Amino acid sequence: MPQLIFFAAVGVVAYFGYRKFVREAERVTAKARRARREAANGSMGTLVYDPKTGEYRVAKD
After folding, report:
1. Residue 38 burial (CB < 10 Å; 0-12/13-18/19+)?
2. Cα(40)–Cα(37) distance, rounded to whole angstroms?
3. How many Å apart are CA 46 and CA 53, to the nearest integer?
4. What is the pTM of this model?
C-alpha cells in the first residue's frame, strides 16, 4: 500500500511539473516571437491597449 501512495504522489508532482513547464515554454516562445516581430518591423516595443485609461502603452515583460 505505501508503494501505491508513493507512486500516486510522484504522478501528481510530475503532472503539475509538466503543466508548469509547458506554461513557461509558451511564455518564452511568445516573448521570442514578439521580439522577432519587433526586429522585423524595426520598432522599439509592442503597444498594448489599456482599457482603464483608453491609452496605448509599451508592453511590459
Report:
1. middle
2. 5
3. 17
4. 0.65
Query: Helix (H, G, I), strand (E, B), or coil: what is residue 15?
Result: helix
Residue 34: burial class (beta carbons within 10 Å; 0-12, 13-18, 19+): middle
Answer yes or no: are the C-beta atoms of 46 and 32 closer than 8 Å: no
Q: Which three cell numbers stand for residue 60?
A: 511590459
Q: CA angle, corner 58, sides to 57 and 59, nearest 5? A: 110
- Supply the DSSP symbol for 43: -
Tens-place pLDDT, residues 7-34: 999 999 999 999 999 999 999 999 999 8
Residue entry with cell 520598432: 43
Residue type present at position 34: R
